[in-house]
Q: What sequence folds into this?
């Protein structure tokens, strides 16, 4: 067989393989996947067949391994059974008609009940929240549960770690979970793990990508939760990681970037729900079920807020956080305030936001003027024109600060705070935790934080936006396409 024949034969084989890839992709990819995500993957495979197929095999499955999902189902079943006959405080009267069904949906999807008689205090200053957590840790007598996406021992967090060292030295159990991929290649990883070892903490990596140890899942899945539980009586959750406000990254320091976050200190029965999140994640990573998930021992907190914790992520069948946000957006009558550093909505969320404006609801969106992640930053910008034309007011928090808070307030009585962004990654790929709060005093406190953000922001107008250069529009639109690759 001569060279020309070999060339024709090889070209025919490659063409056949290419055709098989394309036909198989049409059959496999759209199944149980959002149309936008399916279309993005199909385009990638049709234009770049071999690269597209490789990427799809690497990151195309948005679900956790079956064994981990089975563990989540086991924990959910236990929580459902244990909480079915229990009374978690007294709920506030005169709830809106839509509130009960929304709470029922949250419990059906995420297993955790609503509870009354809770206290909650917002902490908007970065170092103040680290110091507040350290102060509560020092009061521990039984255990401290630490679960953060990023955990770094540095000058800003030194007191937090010293508090852990002090309580561990007197016999308090310290358990720590930190995301593998978010920490392994970051500054101070070795110093942090050595310090955890030295204090005697029982620590584990979340969602580790360690194929040689038989631990493998889609490598860009993240446990993005941020929470702390002390003795089952006090908890913290929100958007802040345990690290310096620069994240100790040279590129951030060179640009002068600092993160702005919001945490909430909570007490009362809802703390047991936060602890249940930790216990579930601990079981997923260690196969150990902790006895501290004693949800029958709830005690009243310092307030009378109604609170419900909603876990979400690829361990669940649907996007729990997205459904919560959609339910609230459609329920709003007067005002919606959204704070999200990464606002990349799917069709349903974008429709809910713009429909709210059409109903006469005042809608404001707080984002950062400067982005720290180029692809997400440009994908977010691609939605500004549609939002501004719909009548959404967009406030851009002035650089060099990155507004990292994740919150949603509805009218004057309901709010959500937690780790979840309003983007497709947080809906489908990240493990997140959100807390629904009903109480006018808490929403008023949130309004104060929003007013502070507004005073440090500038409003983006449609006139200004329409003057964007063509190159920015092209980058924004390309990033929008890639954001759908889930």
A:
């Amino acid at each position: 067989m001569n060279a020309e024949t070999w060339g024709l034969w090889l070209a025919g084989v490659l063409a056949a393989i290419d055709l098989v890839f394309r036909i198989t992709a049409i059959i496999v990819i759209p199944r149980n996947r959002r149309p936008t995500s399916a279309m993005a993957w199909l385009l990638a495979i049709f234009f770049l067949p071999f690269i597209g197929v490789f990427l799809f095999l690497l990151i195309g499955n948005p679900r956790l391994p079956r064994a981990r999902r089975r563990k989540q189902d086991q924990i959910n079943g236990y929580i459902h059974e244990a909480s079915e006959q229990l009374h978690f405080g007294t709920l506030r009267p005169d709830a809106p008609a839509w509130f009960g069904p929304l709470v029922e949906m949250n419990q059906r999807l995420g297993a955790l009940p609503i509870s009354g008689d809770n206290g909650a205090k917002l902490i908007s200053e970065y170092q103040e929240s680290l110091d507040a957590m350290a102060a509560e840790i020092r009061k521990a007598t039984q255990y401290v549960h630490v679960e953060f996406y990023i955990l770094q021992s540095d000058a800003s967090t030194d007191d937090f770690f010293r508090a852990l060292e002090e309580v561990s030295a007197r016999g308090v159990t310290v358990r720590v979970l930190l995301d593998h991929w978010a920490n392994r290649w970051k500054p101070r990883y070795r110093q942090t793990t050595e310090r955890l070892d030295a204090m005697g903490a029982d620590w584990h990596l979340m969602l580790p990508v360690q194929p040689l140890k038989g631990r493998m899942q889609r490598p860009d899945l993240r446990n993005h939760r941020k929470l702390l539980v002390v003795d089952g009586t006090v908890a913290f959750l929100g958007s802040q990681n345990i690290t310096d406000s620069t994240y100790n990254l040279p590129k951030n320091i060179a640009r002068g970037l600092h993160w702005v976050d919001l945490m909430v200190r909570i007490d009362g029965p809802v703390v047991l729900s936060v602890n249940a999140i930790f216990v579930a994640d601990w079981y997923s990573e260690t196969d150990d079920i902790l006895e501290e998930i004693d949800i029958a021992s709830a005690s009243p907190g310092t307030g009378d807020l109604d609170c419900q914790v909603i876990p979400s992520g690829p361990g669940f069948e649907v996007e729990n956080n997205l459904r919560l946000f959609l339910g609230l957006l459609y329920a709003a009558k007067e005002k919606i305030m959204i704070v999200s550093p990464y606002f990349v909505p799917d069709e349903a969320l974008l429709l809910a936001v713009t429909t709210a404006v059409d109903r006469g609801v005042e809608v404001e969106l707080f984002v950062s003027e400067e982005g720290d992640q180029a692809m997400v930053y440009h994908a977010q910008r691609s939605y500004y024109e549609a939002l501004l034309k719909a009548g959404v007011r967009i406030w851009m928090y002035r650089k060099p600060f990155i507004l990292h808070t994740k919150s949603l307030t509805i009218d004057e009585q309901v709010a959500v705070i937690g780790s979840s962004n309003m983007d497709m990654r947080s809906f489908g790929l990240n493990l997140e935790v959100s807390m629904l709060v009903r109480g006018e005093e808490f929403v008023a406190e949130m309004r104060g934080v929003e007013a502070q953000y507004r005073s440090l922001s500038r409003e983006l107008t449609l006139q200004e936006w329409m003057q964007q250069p063509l190159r920015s529009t092209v980058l924004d639109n390309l990033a929008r396409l890639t954001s759908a690759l889930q």
